[in-house]
Amino acid sequence: MSAERPAHAGVRVRRVPSRRYLPLAALLAAALAQAVPEPRAAAAAPEPADSTQAVSRAPADSSSADSTTAAGGVPQRDVFDVVARILGKPPVESEITITRRRGLSITLLPALGYNPSYGGYLGLSASMGGWIGPPETTTLSAGSASITYSTTKQLSVQFKSDFYTADNKFALKGDWRYLDTSQPTYGLGPATVANSESPMSFVLYRFYQTVYWHVPRSKVYVGLGLHFNRWDEIEETDAAPGEETDYRIYSGGAVSRATTSGLSVNALMDTRDNPINAQAGAYWNLSYRSYTTALGGDDEWQGISSDFRIYPRVGKKGRHTLAIWNYTWLTFGQAPYLDLPASGWDTYGRGARGYLQGRLRGRNQIYTEAEYRFDLRKDGLLGGVVFTNFMATTLPLAMNFGQVDPGIGAGLRLKFNKRTSTNLTIDAAWDRFGVGHMFLAMQEAF
């Protein structure tokens, strides 16, 4: 489930205090966890004579480590084990019987969730995870596709992909969207109490696709990408004719359509043990994009983005990880207003938890987040996180950065798929003014 869907036209986003829902979420997670008692550590299983029946083990530095292996030999559990126990069925599988298999698993589920930018939503989603090539030499691939309709009457169709071909020869990263939606804008620069909320409706057609080639005998990929955005039917729904708003001042008028189209050159390094829920390793994606009128864009401008993540393990027992994320987003030239760096507009819409999507916007942004992840049960069924983040945004009429906007929060994790280590995530976060929001998603923030 992605979190990049804003709210409907003419409807002001209601800031829902997260304290109303966090106790309910905690109670639900605890009830589910009690349905499956924690198992004792399993005795070591003898190696079978036929090596093809043995549990597949990746090398210590492999990025496709088997997520079903538990600390202390305790079998891992997920929600399917909970359901099986409630129905009186045998457990789905334990790590003694699971072998990492080549193939992409696709799970079709109702899409049900909540994000403060667009309210609750309902639809259909397809979650993808698995190995396109041999698991021993291929990084775990992940993707999602969804079509949803929200309580604020907005339509969203999205496809996100992080695929690695056999033996990691190529990496394919895509971000395709159709959004018939709206969200408030707050002008440019850091958050202040003086920022005025201006509802805006628009339709977005997005096609981002990058193909990376693996540099032999290295952890590095290089690639080329195509990036297209069409912002259509842009309207500030509460603005009077001739009124000077931040959007109109920046855009030179009440612009109702903006198109950007360009190419990118990219470098990628990925040593994470699991792209869906990393416990170790690092990730760095550096991209230079050149938008041009020659490819159908309205203006010539450039952008540079750097996405760096590192996951140092904390302690020797259990799964305790300190995850650190830095995202730098710079523009050069006159980028369209809605293409400027903004909170919550990263690929999966998980940055700047505590702030509404688009609450912070400027020509340049630097974002840093630290999250501590830990197990609440030895079998991995329940976990928790605490996190803090900081966003620096350039001032409206200058290139220097203004005040830093902090956020803080905590959340619960419920293991949805032990094979790929996919979690259902429930987070509560607060912005610099103490306003809280709830975030429900499928997959870690980063």
Total beta strand runs: 16
Q: Termini separation (Å)? A: 13 Å
Secondary-structure content class: mainly beta
The whole-angstrom Rg is 22 Å
Mean pLDDT: 81
**Helix content class:** under 10%
- What overall form do the CA principal axes indicate? globular
In terms of topology, how is this protein built?
Blueprint lengths: L21 H13 L44 H8 L16 E13 L3 E13 L9 E10 L4 E10 L5 E16 L12 E17 L5 E17 L9 H6 L6 E13 L11 E10 L9 E10 L9 E14 L30 E12 L6 E13 L6 E17 L4 E9 L5 E7 L4
Antiparallel strand pairs: 1-2, 2-3, 3-4, 4-5, 5-6, 6-7, 7-8, 8-9, 9-10, 10-11, 11-12, 12-13, 13-14, 14-15, 15-16
How would you sum up this structure, described in words?
- This protein has 446 residues and is mainly β.
- The chain contains three helices and 16 strands.
- The protein has a 16-stranded antiparallel sheet with strand order 1-2-3-4-5-6-7-8-9-10-11-12-13-14-15-16.
- The longest helix is centred in the first third of the chain and has 13 residues.
- The N terminus is likely disordered.
